[in-house]
Amino acid sequence: MSRTTVAQVLRASESPGMVTVKGWVRTKRDSKAFSFIEINDGSCLSNLQIVADATIEGYEESVPHLRTGASVSVEGEIVESQGKQQWEMQAKSVTMLGNSDEDYPLQKKGHSPEFLRSIAHLRPRTNLFGAVFRMRSRMAYAIHQFFQEQGFVYVHTPIITASDCEGAGEMFRVTNLDGKTLDTKPEEDFFGKPSYLTVSGQLEGETFACALSNIYTFGPTFRAENSHTSRHASEFWMIEPEMAFCDLDDDMALAEAMIKYLAADALEHCAEDLEFLNKFVDKGLKERLEFVKKRDFERISYTDAVELLLKSNKKFEYKVEYGLNLQSEHERYLTEEHFKCPVTVYNYPKDIKPFYMRRNDDNKTVAAMDLLVPGIGEIVGGSQREERLDVLRENLKHHDLTEEDYYWYVDLRRYGSVPHAGFGLGFERLLMFVTGVSNIRDVIPFPRTPGSAEF
RNA sequence: UCCUCAGUAGCUCAGCGGUAGAGCGGGUGGCUGUUAACCACUAGGUCGUUGGUUCGAACCCAACCUGAGGAGCCA
After folding, report:
1. SS3 (DSSP) at A337
2. At what angle do helices A127-149 and A248-269 cross, to 10 degrees?
3. ipTM entry
4. What digits encode the pLDDT tens for the residues A130-175?
5. Are A364 and A245 in contact (CB under 8 A)?
6. Could you tell me the distance in Å between the CA of residue A318 and the C1' of nucleotide B3?
7. Domains, chain A, ranges and CATH?
8. How many angstroms separate the CA atoms of A412 and A389, rounded?
């Protein structure tokens, strides 16, 4: 008999009859003549309750010895439960596939996320991480769906790159040389020059947008920043769309539409997991997603945002002044206290932004935008790219970058240059937003942070 | 890199200068449908590490290690 998943059983409108289910024991309650065994197979949040009479086939050898975490195969009939769940299985035979040692670390009681991180190989067996990683999978699927439905082409930009200083943080060196040779003869390295793990696929993405019009990337990126916060990881996944024949307005519209689409998709396809997360992790989660799905986002220029912050009479630790970057506390004020909804801030001063962003006509600002969401802050950062050859050359010089290093990027402006724009969305930050989980280490299977690369 | 907080049983924590504790989890036994089941018994600890203060340190002090929160940087 083929295997039926717990999800298939529990979602049935009428009894599927005799089936075989396989999974891991979450809890077991024995009495003299029978046992209740709850198993979970990850197909959904809920467990299936199995009623095993002491007289059934395989009982003696397996059931009394089963500990939490053991794997079992059970054949039986799905019947209406006398208890609080709709369905349960009346077992006909039980087989223990593999028992669990006495020191199995997961209990029925709650564990701290810090402890669960130390057993990242077992934490997907908990309700919380099962829910989070089912949602991670669903959101990845929905992202592809969002772009593919609109004709975007998925591009795989390189993970190893030799283009230095992309302006997005410290890079990890990739090498097969020993330390000494690395210092003295870097030209003997594997690629003939220093190479690194990518911090962004944007520049390569632009080359494809200037050929296929609308593209997106979705892959891992690496930052060697020594950041110790709940919102930063050394390895994380990023989605970077890039659109030719587009300006900043189109770019902001796409970012907003995408966040809305993903909120709606989560509500529609992750209902049971969201219910759990809403109850145990973030009581305002579902309400927030409904709100994001329905309501239009706010937009405000950097200049107006600065003015608004100055007029707010709110005491900030860092000062607000035109020309300075908005601090975390300023961004939080805008999205959490003032607007109380996602906000896109656009047209930042050119001096605090990278070389590739398009200079506005005021000659003071660039066509950049950050999308801020309550609880997390910046979730999207994007811009219209500088498509004018002379201005780009000027910017390279201004940022102390050489045209030789970026000749291929400059070429895009020499051969049929077009206005184009794009953004980067941190996948883990999005997951924090849609799951309510407050630490980035708990939305990525095996987190890498400074000093920590276990598993 | 800077600032703050925390490390006591497998887990969650109490104890805060005078014999190391509880609940859960584990083991054994019991129990006519349980739902974080229940009842009884039981095993389990170099109190993060090193040094110092003291008659005496889990407790006070210092350094280090680990974890967490925040800042900066960003996604």
Report:
1. helix
2. 130
3. 0.88
4. 999 999 999 999 999 999 999 999 999 999 998 765 555 688 989 8
5. no
6. 15
7. 6-98 (2.40.50.140), 123-159+198-442 (3.30.930.10)
8. 9
